[in-house]
Amino acid sequence: MKRIYISMLLTLIFISVKAQNSAEKIVAGNSGLHIGGYGQVDFNLNERKGTINNNGKLDVHRLVTFFGYNFNDKVSFVSEVEFEHVSEVYVEQAFLDYKINNNFSVNAGLMLIPMGIQNLYHEPPTFNGVERTNVDKYIIPTTWREMGVGVSGRSIEHSINYQAMLVNGFNGYDDGGVFSGKSGLRSGRQKGAESYITYPDFVGRVSYYGNPGLNLGFSAYLGDTESKAYDGLDLSDDIAVSSADSTIVGIQMIGIDARYIKGSVQFTGQYVIAELSNTDQYNEYTGKDLGSKLTGYYYEIGYNLMDGIIPSISSNNEELIAFARYENYNTHAETEGIAINDAYNRTEITLGLGFKVAKGAVFKADYQIKSNSSSDDETGQFNLGVGVWF
């Protein structure tokens, strides 16, 4: 009950427009059916190490279709269906949005968790680099969506957008441990596929947009993971209850992010920290090596070379964005009862170009230098990509 009271209190605190993602953009228009989508096609090649050759990989990484329907000016349904690597099919969003007024809505269904930048803005033309950042892959972890109910709105007077949700937690135990030291919480996303829940988790986000070109965000997630060890559990059996409790991990995640555009220059930065509790019992019971603290951050600078340096070759408002990014993500920042694995403290430097040939269409190229704290060795990876959003 204490957790429920805390969740309700935090919900009230965060209640103050939700960050518009691609699906919401599609249904923001007139009544009726709205269709759109985004896609990403990649080429990745790891640098040769000595005499060891690596094949390149070509992949239709993802193709997402948006279907939205505006019943009237107050009620909308939003959905996204995603095809990954050609053969995998997922539902990325499916929720009903009811506008109480122009600045306040209630939402229910399968929704994106409002943590960080790329979990909300993950369409290829919206970020630099062929691949999404690994901070957003392993710490957040993008694309993170769960079932629940929430509110969203804005305070125009204070230049604030906000979201607050109660959702199901990660699946941490399903006939065995799901989490790991290397990938953190990523494998526990339930994604709306027959999700189960014991108590709801809370997540909220506040964004400030009061200064031109600047967007500041603060996100918070609080709750416990779910466990199938509780399904059919005899609550009068203290030993069984104690064993089931060992499969639960508590999560407190906080993230801050900033985006700033001034003329041709753009800056982006993000920091996320996740404090996990009960990981010593979880690891002992499951034989896993989950860390008790996960951290990640990156900072990036970009510049539009077509603004005064390289003239545009057409009148389509083309942009050629050169960027550099430094990124660190550590899924073993701290541990309980097990040794820290320095190989999970990873750093990447990415240098690249993005040629936006039209609004929503981009060619990308970058080179990444990857390393970790367990070795002085560095590996390189070359990436090419095509991204669209419409």
What does this entry look like structurally?
- The protein is mainly β.
- The chain has one domain (2-389): Porin.
- Helix content is 10%, strand content 50%.
- It has helices at residues 2-14, 22-26, 134-139, 238-245, 279-286; strands at 32-46, 57-70, 75-84, 88-101, 104-112, 145-155, 160-167, 171-173, 201-208, 214-224, 226-227, 250-262, 265-277, 293-304, 319-334, 345-358, 361-372, 379-389.
- It has a 16-stranded antiparallel barrel. Strands 8-11 form a two-stranded parallel sheet.
- Mean pLDDT is 92; it is low at 1-20.
What are the key terms here?
390 residues; mainly beta; 5 helices; disordered N terminus
Question: In short, what is this structure?
Answer:
The chain has helices at 2-14, 22-26, 134-139, 238-245, 279-286, and strands at residues 32-46, 57-70, 75-84, 88-101, 104-112, 145-155, 160-167, 171-173, 201-208, 214-224, 226-227, 250-262, 265-277, 293-304, 319-334, 345-358, 361-372, 379-389.
Q: What is the strand and helix layout of this fold?
A:
Layout: H1 2-14, H2 22-26, E1 32-46, E2 57-70, E3 75-84, E4 88-101, E5 104-112, H3 134-139, E6 145-155, E7 160-167, E8 171-173, E9 201-208, E10 214-224, E11 226-227, H4 238-245, E12 250-262, E13 265-277, H5 279-286, E14 293-304, E15 319-334, E16 345-358, E17 361-372, E18 379-389
Parallel strand pairs: 8-11
Antiparallel strand pairs: 1-2, 1-18, 2-3, 3-4, 4-5, 5-6, 6-7, 7-9, 9-10, 10-12, 12-13, 13-14, 14-15, 15-16, 16-17, 17-18
